[in-house]
Write a structure and sequence with these properties.
By secondary structure, the chain is an alpha+beta fold. It folds into 2 domains: 307 residues, Aminopeptidase (3-Layer(aba) Sandwich); 124 residues, Alpha-Beta Plaits, CATH 3.30.70. The chain is 33% helix and 23% strand. The strands form 5 sheets. It has a 6-stranded mixed sheet with strand order 1-2-6-3-7-17, sandwiched between helices. A 4-stranded antiparallel sheet has the order 4-5-19-18. Strands 11-14-10-15 form a 4-stranded antiparallel sheet, covered by helices on one side. The protein is elongated.
């Protein structure tokens, strides 16, 4: 697949999808909506089968088993299907399905993931249906999203709009806990993003105050580790010249300065674990710590870990620089070191993303659905679509609606599969009719 940059003027993108005020669905689009509705029970049956196979990120056999279940589904639609092993990053692998038709058509990347947060030891393991809702591990995040992708593509095939399309489906096997180094675990996804013009992320639909929302931005997900050191000694000497403040006061100074000096819109920074004493150290997995100390000993070490979430790369870099300035202003007799691990980049809000949401809202009008307003970015976390955000116009939140993701009792609104698959299928079909032959330049983003 060859890569191409986005250079389409924003006005041209808007015109490509403009619909008159009285516009209606075409006969083909009506057929798409009917096909999606008619196949709902079939889709729910496949969802149940997937959910009942544990595919926690670290259950490699389970992730592969769900992948093997899905590969024939995409092959039957005319896709070339590949399982990409990821043993080198201690993960199961990714499923990629490719269809390349009209060389002048819009290149569309559909993103989802096979893995869930529920490992084999979780008590929450099975699918259970109650009318128009169902519960199960990953039923929304993200097995329901995969069902929306398949439902949309099947409707396109049966309505005749899939022929000649340029589509790559990327289903990662480690979205919930990406393999390290992340540059390797996301290599194939990034390459697909460089090929694509448009990316659609099928994480769950965002609903706020009972209304479906459009996701044109997602914040980054980064982690930081802070270590402080001080001169140990008898507590009666603390604060004296030549003795200093000790590691815990230095840690407290820095964390409180983060609290008071960093706040700005769309930025959050959490402290997840903290320990101090003589000695104090994080465990190798970074998830626990060990510390010892006495009230009459000045603490020698302190360590803390937390996360950092930003809306743009510029914000990430600027906030990281300010954090370092705070860390460097040491109390007497102390030292500190900050390490930031940049993992999931932000999906910044762009005019191109908003133009895609406008296109989707044209479809909503034709379907008789309410207009979708942009979701406030702070309400969504990071996702795989962020890795391709620098290269494409993107919309996230194209999966089904539900509640309780990442927790026992995760629940899907089964009716949302229909409207989300209809939206996605019609959007991709219109992209096929109005190719983005001159995509937006990165300098314009």
């Amino acid at each position: 697949m060859t890569s191409r940059l986005l250079t389409l003027p924003l006005a041209a993108l808007a015109l490509a999808f403009a619909t008159p005020a009285a516009a209606q669905l075409s006969n083909t689009e009506e057929r798409i909506t009917q096909i999606v509705e008619a196949n709902l029970e079939r889709d729910i049956a496949l969802l149940e089968a997937m959910v009942n196979i544990n595919s926690g990120t670290h259950n490699h056999d389970g992730v592969r088993e769900v992948g093997q279940m899905l590969m024939p589904e995409f092959a039957a639609l005319g896709f070339e299907v590949e399982w990409i092993e990821q043993d080198h990053v201690d993960r199961a692998g990714h499923l990629f399905a490719r269809m390349e038709g009209d060389s002048d058509g819009t290149n569309v990347l559909l993103i989802g993931h096979i893995d869930t947060v529920f490992e084999p030891e979780s008590p929450f393991q099975t699918f259970s249906r109650d009318g128009l809702s169902a519960t199960g591990p990953g039923v929304v995040d993200n097995k329901g999203g995969i069902i929306v992708i398949l439902a949309a593509l099947r409707a396109m095939r049966d309505a005749g709009t899939l022929a000649g399309a340029n589509i790559v489906v990327a289903l990662t096997g480690d979205e919930e806990s990406a393999g390290d180094p992340i540059a390797q675990s996301r290599q194939h996804l990034i390459e697909a993003g460089q090929w694509a013009d448009v990316a659609l992320g099928f994480e769950g639909l965002s609903v706020m105050d009972g209304r479906d929302m459009g996701v044109v931005a997602r914040r980054s997900s980064n982690s930081w580790t802070l270590t402080t050191t001080g001169e140990s000694g008898h507590s009666s000497g603390i604060f004296r010249e030549g003795v200093g403040y000790g590691a815990i006061y230095e840690m407290a100074r820095i964390l409180d300065a983060f609290r008071t000096q960093l706040p700005e819109e769309n930025l959050t920074y959490n402290v997840g674990i903290l320990a101090g004493g003589t000695p104090a150290a994080l465990a190798t997995d970074g998830l626990s710590a060990e510390a010892r100390g006495k009230t009459n000993i000045i603490p020698e070490n302190a360590v803390a870990r937390g996360d950092l979430r930003t809306l743009t790369q510029e914000q990430s870099e600027r906030v990281a620089a300010r954090m370092q300035e705070i860390v460097d202003a040491n109390l007497p007799g102390t030292d500190a070191e900050l390490t930031i691990n940049f993992r999931y980049p932000p999906m910044a809000p762009t005019e191109g993303n908003m133009a895609l949401l406008d296109a989707l809202n044209g479809i909503n009008a034709d379907l008789g659905l309410e207009r979708m307003e942009p979701l406030p970015p702070a309400r969504r976390g990071a996702a795989d679509i962020s890795f391709v955000a620098p290269f494409v116009h993107g919309l996230a939140g194209m999966g089904p609606a539900g509640r309780g993701s990442h927790a026992p009792g995760e629940t899907i609104d089964l009716t949302s599969i229909v409207r989300q698959a209809q939206r996605a299928a019609i959007l991709m079909s219109r992209l096929g009719e109005n190719p983005l032959t001159t995509p937006i330049a990165l300098s314009d983003r």
